Structures
1.
Amino acid sequence: MNVTLRTPRFILRPAQLGDAEPIARYLNDFEVAGNLARVPFPYHLSDAKAWLRTRRPNLPVEETNFSIELPGAGFAGHVGFHRGAQGPIIGYWLGQPFWGRGIMTEAVTASLDWFFEATGADTVYSGVFHFNAASLAIQNKLGFTQTGRSTLLCLARGAEVEHIDTKLTHGVWKAREK
Ligand SMILES: CC(C)(COP(=O)(O)OP(=O)(O)OC[C@H]1O[C@@H](n2cnc3c(N)ncnc32)[C@H](O)[C@@H]1OP(=O)(O)O)[C@@H](O)C(=O)NCCC(=O)NCCS
């Protein structure tokens, strides 16, 4: 789906072929790739181009992805949804130069506002590898609750890693203090 969202500080827009170079630059960083399940390491420009070719404009709404575009800096990271066994899953990453400024909290908040409204979904699922305190802090802050533990293959580490599974219901999202 072709959606653009405006947050107070930046825009979330559909991925485009021109994102390949910064995607490759920021994902070829073990501090980023090692916290994600499906990103190989090292990560090459060809990986970014191959992934971008899968981002066709007619994808179902549950497969919507956004590039985070900061004024002045351009592409900074990504937030997106995909379909999991239980329901929609949200995932996200930010290039390391942009960490620690509340950018992902702002991006995930806008994405969830849009997603619940656009899909009528009751629940969005997510989670973090057990060592990912920053991502867990974002999810705790936004109302996600822990549902259990599992193991998930981390491509960059080439290993199964303990994963904290989380979920956020639409009811909790609507009731949160803004
Ligand atoms: C995780 C990630 C998205 C965070 O992006 P960000 O824009 O820096 O996040 P924010 O600034 O919005 O929020 C981070 C929160 O984590 C907290 N935090 C950061 N490091 C922390 C740590 N080591 N322990 C506990 N909390 C931590 C921050 O204080 C902040 O919470 P606050 O706003 O309540 O102070 C970014 O570091 C990243 O892309 N990491 C690699 C990929 C990844 O982990 N993706 C998520 C996979 S589940």
Note: Strands lie at 5-6, 11-13, 65-70, 74-83, 88-94, 123-129, 145-154, 159-169.
2.
Amino acid sequence: MQTGWRRRQRSWCSARCAIPATSPKALKSCAACSASRTAFSAPRRCGRYWFSIRPRPYARRRCGRLPMVELNPAQQSHFRASLARVEQLLSDAVRVMEQESEAPFRRYLADATPVQRQVVADYAAKVRARMRKALETFDVSPFPAVTGTVAAARTAVLFAQGALQEIEPRSMRGYGPLGRETERELSAAGAELMELLHDIDAYLAQGSARELGERLRRLENSPVDSRAIAELEGIITAHGLTELRAPLAMLVERLESPQLEVAVFGRTGAGKSSLLNHLLKTTALPVGVTPVTSVPLRIVHGKKPWGRAWFADAVPESFPLGRLAEFVHAQYNPSNVRHVTRITVELPAPILVRGMALADTPGLGSLATASASESLAYLPRCDLGIVLVDAASALTHEDVALVDALHRAGASVMVLLTKADLLSADDRWRSLGYLRHELETRTHTELPIHAVSVVGADAALCDAWRDEVLVPWLEAHKRGLQLSLRRKVGLLRDAAITALQIRLEAGRETAVTAETTEDRDAERLLAEALEALNTCAREQRPPFPDARLAAREIVEEAAHNTAVLWSRSPERQIDAGSLLAASLSGKAGAAAREISRDLARLRARLAAALMDAARAARLPRFDEELPPVAGMPVLDSHGVGRLCVRRPAFALGRWLHRYAARRQLYRLGSMNQIHRLLSGYQVRLLDWRLHMVEELKRSFCAQRDILRAHARVDGANASTTLAIKDAVERLKRLGGRAANESAEATS
Ligand SMILES: Nc1nc2c(ncn2[C@@H]2O[C@H](COP(=O)(O)OP(=O)(O)OP(=O)(O)O)[C@@H](O)[C@H]2O)c(=O)[nH]1
Ligand SMILES: [Mg+2]
């Protein structure tokens, strides 16, 4: 055995392990046995060498102290491993005794009485306490746990999901043929089980910070009584009404973002920032005759004026509003060279108290194409889009495309004719009439159009529009939102009461009520709708499977249109970029419309299934609330830019002109450009489709669970009769309170 005498630059851990520590000064404890620093013998220096002395155990015994209880490192490791095995087996024993009586598969016969279970658990606690003491006596540290419980549970759920695939019809067919009806039943059972496992995983994945109770406590200015929802949440958790957790989570999500998003769009210099400054009674937003706003800006209510900017490549920065121009003004941040990703401004403006967030966007049609794409990216997010058309300039294709894009994104649209002070009263009426006629014929929709101004006496026009159009729109939408939220709380509360009452009446063991034919039909419809949803989620068919081929077709079409234009116009040089952009928009728009139509059909099917299930549950009033198919991404065809092509000097036929145009377009690199734009749009389109399907699924499953809770209860946990009665009473009182609130809101 090493004694440690005269070892150069070494020190020995004298506590237990006799392992040399290479740098005792730097260590606070022994790396091998975690003894403290004092257990090291102090190194001493003699001439050029360092020595350290390890005191021998017998030396201490001789000095009259208590005999030392000590295990060598090998013994310690064996001791630790043995106790770990004991703990593992003991846990198994306790788990075996506590077998879930509801489990369809049991490994052992459930022959233990409750008393036996309790006694074993008590003994196990004693064994564990003794093991802890033994570990302390020998100063042996247990193996540290490295895997969290949540991670372990999620892994188990993941494996369970894998195992579930074995009951899918295509796996089962390997064991023999299946009838159609059997296949359908198998798919339905598999899909539902997968759904439940997915719910467990999603719940564990959100972490403790996303706990509903925690989020409810943080809710301020909620349109419904958040205490009522907190109470509902408490009852749902306490009585294990897991089927109501998803609807509750969705409700809390809606409560967390009750603001309506209103954004202004329009060409550069149309007066967007000036209009917002007027509405907000501020001069904070920079305005000017040249293109000004280069980054979208979101304005929300706050106690004092303040701004915050987020960057793609730097930490976020808060600033007083005097510095706003540094981030949004095209002069200081041209084409967003500072890589600002988001700007939020807080203002104590009265109009924002009404639960509205306003957004100023960069103007379209300027040379700063990056700004245009940022504005277009904002479209899907808004509830109301206000399109500004400058009275001093004519209506353009861009304005019409903007209105169309807003419609496609599912937002409400208002059009404003700005700078009305520049027109006489007669001209104003004429302009409004022209604008209305043009927009209606091009977009095939009736739009509210108003003339406004923010200058001089004509600013009254803007105030009138604000008071008579904007504020009523806001109030109506807010009331709709509040009523819908209250209705949802009421529905959830009723579902919880029904579930608890059924549990109370039927008793714990037989908590499933008899199913009627209607119930079964509704169940079948719901299962089929869910299957359709899952199929839709699995099928991610790209709209352009061969993007290069699609790009070539677009260039061909643009070349054909160029040739037609050459044959008609005397101009030798034309901008083929706009023709290319039009062809690209046409092709992309057709693909997007088809996806949107498919989603709308799926939504209608889900809604029908929900309504049938509501009829089967004998619910007199049930308004399905599936999210609308909205927020479709918009293609930014500005990216094509200008592409000048020249007509050949000598007269040729249409076919040769087309050949010449195609050659020039290819030479200008349009093929690669279109391919890049189309591929990017395709990815965004597929992302949106998947997101929409997920949204529909979440909402559908949440509403289906509410309906099921009304009709029957799938399982019960061990809540006592008294506790259930108490919960039902509390929920009923909650109903009374909610009804009063609702009556107040309506009055
Ligand atoms: N006469 C008149 N001028 C206006 C009115 N509203 C805005 N303007 C002027 O129009 C110019 C452009 O206004 P902005 O508010 O900067 O326009 P914008 O749409 O925000 O422009 P970008 O940020 O570049 O997209 C400024 O010189 C304003 O003074 C109005 O109602 N009447
Ligand atoms: Mg502006």
Note: Residues 11-62 form one domain.
